[in-house]
Amino acid sequence: MAMIHELEISFRRESARIVASLTRTFGPARLALAEDVAQETFLRALRVWSAKGVPPEPAAWLHRVARNLALDVLRREGLYHPQALAEHLVVTAPEFDNVLADDELRMLFLCSHPSLPVESQIALTLNTLGGLSAKEIAHGLLAKESAIAQRIVRAKRLLQESQATFEMPSANELPARKEAVLKVLYLLFNEGYKASHGPDLTRDDLCHEAILLTNRLANHPGPPDPAVHALLALMLLQASRLPTRTNEVGELCLLEDQDRGQWDLDLIQAGLRHLALAANGDRMTVYHCEAAIAAAHATAPSLTNTDWEAVVEAYGDLNRIAPSPVVGLNRAVALSMLRGPAVGLEEIQKIESDPRLAHYHLLWAAQGSMLERLGRYSEAECAYGKAMPLTQNEAERSLLNERRQGLRVLF
Amino acid sequence: MKKFILLIRGEDKWEQLSPAEAQAAVEKYSAWAKKLREEGRLVDAEGLAPEARHLVPHEGQIVVSDGPFTETKEIVGGYYVFTAKDLDEATEICRACPSLEYGGNVEIRPVMDYS
């Protein structure tokens, strides 16, 4: 009887590595074939391991079986030649790990290929690099499984038609392609972050997946890219607060009510390290600004003892790089913390007629809070009342209602 | 103690598993087999590859063909040989076999022993 080993690998992770490595073998046009082979590999693992137990080196076992299945495919197609075999067999640890990391990075660029719409880029990245099924992705993105499955199928077809190659982008393409990759990772993280309330762990998983992939990008040899470090800093700093964003019954917990003692210090420190690395450059990105804001919050002992000046400045920078009334609104809120609610309210009134904010509940929620602090209770109640029907999020709505009810007793 | 063979057929839900779900499945099978092993019951176990050859005598010749012709549900995917007091105890042991969760069905056959 074979020795039985505890399973210390992650099938999701190995699936991503196998698919990436097979995509190098078959080419991006045959991504679906790469996935079929990976699937068959796991079926064989199930068959053998359920009887014999987990082998001593499960990851190596999986990669060996996947490689042999791939060679079978090439042989059947008459495409097999000794060179292909040599190429596949020469790769041994630890070089093997480097080749795989390289394949995964290429895969990351392939998944955010310019021929794909952004929503397909996200779904495909989660599918191939996250090793998540359409069902799991739909759960995390709060979308329908059929819609996600369609996006993935469409992405694969578009890759086929675009004749995308499995190469790293050339030096002159790289900046734009990297920007696309960062955007996908950023959206991926935000999808997980904004939806991460309730007892659901899958959405935290999206955040962790985004961090893992960004980390890989940051660790890739080559000239360091400050924007990558800035994005990673942003993710780590935000993730440090993940466990405190909901209370015991799954309700959304605002920054001011969060137990700061529960924030993950290791993540905060790692985030600050990457923020320092992000400073080595002359280009400021949106990720730099957002990471600076997240850092100010993560290092503050309390809401009032926050470096609001730094926050106001970072929102100002953000509004210059990527102007948006939502950023303006956030700057106004920070300003109200720095100079008082009257100043904040004045700032909001400059942007409140912007049509892009017409259906934005936080415009009214922020005004309500500032009016409340100014003791203008009936106006505050009215503002909260306007905010309530504009949010789809049940947790947010009940929070607004609570504040509104609380005001009733005051006037 | 008597020997029994457990034949597993048609775990057709395996094909729809995501990598994370496949990992959970491996862990379930491992836990089940570990218990058998720790109780000293497990004699042998193997998973069977899907390829097959079929040999049938036909008009004085032996006809060889590829693959079992039965439904996927009927193909034996693997077996365990283990010991139990009697068929009832063997049945109790197999109730916890994870195959049953994955669309599989199991058949327990006592190994004949007249020594």
Could you characterize the architecture of this molecule?
The complex is a heterodimer of chains A (411) and B (115). Chain A is mainly alpha-helical and 411 residues long. Chain A has a domain at 215-306. Chain A has 19 helices and no strands. In chain A, helix 2 (31-52) packs across helix 3. The longest helix of chain A has 22 residues, at 31-52. The radius of gyration of chain A is 25 Å and the shape is elongated. The termini of chain A are far apart. Residues 196-201 of chain A have low confidence and may be disordered. With 115 residues, chain B is of the alpha+beta class. Chain B has one domain (2-110): 2-Layer Sandwich (Alpha-Beta Plaits). Chain B contains 2 helices and 6 strands; from the N terminus they run βαββββαβ. Chain B has helices at 19-38, 87-95; strands spanning 2-9, 42-47, 53-58, 61-66, 76-84, 105-110. Chain B has a 4-stranded antiparallel β-sheet with strand order 2-5-1-6. In chain B, strands 3-4 form a two-stranded antiparallel ribbon. Chain B is flat, with a radius of gyration of 16 Å. The model of chain B has no long low-confidence stretch (mean pLDDT 91). At the A-B interface, helix 1 and helix 2 of A face helix 1, strand 2 and strand 5 of B.
Provide tags for this entry.
heterodimer, A: 411 residues, 0% strand, B: 115 residues, alpha+beta, Alpha-Beta Plaits, two-stranded antiparallel ribbon, 2 helices
Give a concise summary:
Chain A is mainly alpha-helical.
User: How many helical stretches of chain B?
Assistant: 2
Radius of gyration of chain A: 25 Å
- What fold name goes in the CATH topology slot of chain B? Alpha-Beta Plaits
Order of helices and strands of chain B: EHEEEEHE
User: What is the percentage of strand-forming residues of chain A?
Assistant: under 5%
